[in-house]
């Protein structure tokens, strides 16, 4: 079992094969599910990027959503090598297989890119949720409590994404080192030898520590995404209630629950799709055997579905939900304009 934040890859092993057996139904889920998820992710995120490109006012939301869209595309497309190896079933003639050799040669850089994009997508998504929460809270807060300039928010979002990307790449650097050592030393071992038996014990301990950290972060991210989405949904409901009291627009009540449901479902989606991966990796670290290897295609497809549906959950649900992607500076300027106009009318009336 390869270390993976979000996906698991079969690894040839001597002792682990005795508990692994093929289930045609489970394999068919990946054969059908992955191409469907790939098409959904590609089409949806390209449409999302096009919509964000056409959006005139570039703000922090644009930066976060573009980063999430690009990361999700990389996560799905960089899984193609593992998918092709599983589909072609190259367990017999791997020494002569060009596909297998290319997969092994590029596995380190591909895993590093994919896992970095997974980490970056999750953390940027949380930064985006926090940004939305602050924006919605500012719309209901007293005037003058928050002063945010659009350019500063845009620059801050760029810096945040850059820092998160650098930290994610450093955290996943063990994938590059472990595979580089394996490629340098694998010629002295049989082709079916497990990677952990080829690399030095220090490298393997680094790999195990990284996997443990990934499991812990996966659970922490799931809880944080769920909590932040609940907080944002609650704050959005308060903002909508205050607007209805001010504007007396009753027709909004019928659709106001849609964004809240989307936010709650997105948090539940992450927990449901990533928990099986965390459990299987924890079992593998504790026992040293791939008890979940027969269900790896199903677990991978389930995990990838989260990154395939990110755009749908946060961008393309309804037109009403897209109103909450409004730039913070624009919303604050509208609020200040309304308050200034009301103050002016009060002064003129008193005069």
UniProtKB/TrEMBL annotation:
Biased composition (Low complexity): 332-351
Residue ranges of the TM segments: 31-52, 64-85, 129-150, 157-174, 215-234
Locations listed in the record: Membrane
GO molecular function, one term: G protein-coupled receptor activity
Region (Disordered) location: 330-351
InterPro entries attached to this UniProt entry: GPCR-Ligand_Int, GPCR_Rhodpsn, GPCR_Rhodpsn_7TM
Signal peptide region: none
Keywords associated with the record: Membrane, Transmembrane, Transmembrane helix
Primary subcellular site in the record, as a coarse category: membrane
Residue ranges occupied by any G-protein coupled receptors family 1 profile domain in the UniProt entry: 44-314
One GO cellular component, as annotated: membrane
PANTHER family: FMRFAMIDE RECEPTOR-RELATED, G-PROTEIN COUPLED RECEPTORS FAMILY 1 PROFILE DOMAIN-CONTAINING PROTEIN
Name by which UniProt lists this protein: G-protein coupled receptors family 1 profile domain-containing protein
Lineage of the organism: Eukaryota, Metazoa, Ecdysozoa, Tardigrada, Eutardigrada
